[in-house]
């Protein structure tokens, strides 16, 4: 297959590109950074800029599957400017991709789109287990962003291509992501829970996520799927498991909520929100997780 990937230079995209190439696929990718444009035998970069609505339409040539991951990082201070960038990059990026594909009309052969979404669409709850049937409401910044993003992604369906939206949980990777900053204090025996540590964290191993993206593309999954492991854990359990996997002690008292809020500001909701998200639909779809349990998942990444 020839796959067009947006956000291919990011945490998830870079691993996806490697896995797709190893599986024999050809890659086209869209980047906003001209310095990241390259051309090798099986990969070719194309420029786009959602802010100026520029897109190189030849990116769609021969493409069977689009994987849309692009969006400004949410792990940056939520100033008014950054919040606008987080929302606009997703809305304008998706609009540009949809309109670009529409402009190619009969000339393209795209059959399926796998589009990133996030479990941030679900409000924080200590009691609810969220399935894909949940009817979202924009009661917080994150919910607002993800709803607006998914609404634009739905426009792909009007172009007569299949659409699968993956609501991604916390992605565990070797470098960066959520594990990167947590590994440092844990290494020194200073790993500590955030707040009371009872908030549920729905996570997924990067290998499972990229395999799920490719499977959703190959098998043409339709609709919304939660991209999380079947075993979410309380945040305290997460830190405890990380310490165990790193063979370090875990004895630190939890870090008080107010302190984290002081340092991280509004984006501290990212560590305090409790999201128990169900993987039942992906399991029923036949997807087999290589890393369903947290300990083995972390161990494989150390
Ligand atoms: N990592 C997670 O734990 C997680 C969890 C839930 C959902 N997600 C979602 O999954 C997607 C991929 O995640 P990731 O962790 O790989 O993200 P990432 O490392 O931040 O990479 C995102 C990519 O988006 C592109 N981008 C950044 N700002 C942009 C802008 N203003 N306009 C257009 N493109 C822009 C960049 O590509 P170029 O610089 O090459 O243009 C970048 O490589 C994201 O949309 C993210 O929200 C991630």
Structure notes:
By secondary structure, this protein is α/β, with parallel strands linked by helices. The chain has one domain (2-173, 202-229, 276-290): 3-Layer(aba) Sandwich (Rossmann fold), CATH 3.40.50. 36% of the residues lie in helices and 19% in strands. The strands form four sheets. It has an eight-stranded mixed beta sheet with strand order 4-3-2-1-5-6-8-12, sandwiched between helices. A two-stranded parallel sheet has the order 7-14. Helix 1 crosses helix 5 and helix 2 (80-104) packs parallel to helix 3. The longest helix has 25 residues, at 80-104. The protein is globular and about 60 Å long. Residues 7, 9-13, 31-33, 36, 50, 69-74, 85, 89, 93, 116, 118, 168, 170-171, 177 line the site of NADP nicotinamide-adenine-dinucleotide phosphate.
Q: Cofactors and ligands present?
A: NADP nicotinamide-adenine-dinucleotide phosphate
Q: Roughly what percent helix?
A: 25-40%
User: Helix- and strand-based class?
Assistant: alpha/beta
Number of strands: 14
Relevant CATH superfamily: NAD(P)-binding Rossmann-like Domain
Q: Please report the first level of CATH classification, the CATH class.
A: Alpha Beta
For the biggest β-sheet, the strand order reads: 4-3-2-1-5-6-8-12
Determine the number of helices (DSSP H or I, runs of at least 4 residues).
Answer: 10
CATH architecture: 3-Layer(aba) Sandwich
Order of helices and strands: EHEEEEHEEHEEHEEHEEHHHEHH
Measured between the Cα atoms of the first and last residue, the distance is 32 Å
Radius of gyration: 19 Å
- Fraction in beta strands: 15-25%
CATH topology type = Rossmann fold
Instruction: Please state the average pLDDT score.
Output: 94
Structural domain tally: 1
Most strands sheet: 8 strands, mixed
Shape type: globular
Spans with pLDDT under 50 lasting ≥5 residues? none
């Amino acid at each position: 297959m020839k796959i067009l990937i947006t956000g291919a230079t990011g945490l998830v995209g870079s691993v996806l590109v490697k896995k797709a190439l190893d599986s024999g696929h050809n890659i086209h990718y869209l980047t906003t950074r001209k310095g990241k444009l390259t051309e090798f035998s099986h990969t070719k970069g194309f420029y786009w800029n959602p802010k100026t609505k520029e897109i190189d339409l030849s990116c769609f040539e021969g493409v069977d599957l689009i994987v849309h991951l692009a969006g400004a990082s949410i792990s940056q201070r939520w100033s008014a400017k950054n919040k606008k960038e987080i929302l606009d990059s997703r809305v304008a990026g998706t609009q540009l991709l949809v309109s670009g594909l529409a402009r190619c009309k009969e000339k393209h052969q795209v059959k399926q789109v796998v589009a990133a979404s996030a479990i941030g669409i679900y409000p924080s709850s200590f009691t609810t287990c969220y399935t894909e049937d949940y009817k979202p409401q924009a009661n917080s910044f994150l919910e607002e962003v993800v709803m607006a993003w998914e609404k634009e992604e739905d426009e792909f369906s009007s172009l007569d291509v299949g659409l699968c939206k993956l609501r991604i949980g916390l992605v565990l990777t070797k470098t960066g992501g959520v594990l990167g900053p947590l590994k440092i204090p844990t290494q020194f025996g200073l790993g500590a829970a955030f707040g009371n540590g009872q908030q549920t964290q729905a996570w997924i191993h990067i290998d499972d996520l990229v395999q799920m993206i490719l499977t959703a593309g190959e098998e043409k999954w339709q609709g919304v799927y939660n991209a999380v492991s079947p075993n979410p854990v309380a945040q305290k359990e997460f830190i405890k498991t990380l310490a165990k996997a790193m063979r370090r002690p875990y004895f630190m008292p939890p870090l008080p909520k107010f302190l984290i809020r002081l340092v991280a500001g509004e984006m501290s909701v990212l560590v305090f929100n409790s999201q128990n998200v169900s993987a039942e639909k992906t399991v029923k779809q036949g997807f087999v997780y290589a890393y369903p349990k947290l300990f083995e998942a972390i161990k494989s990444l150390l």
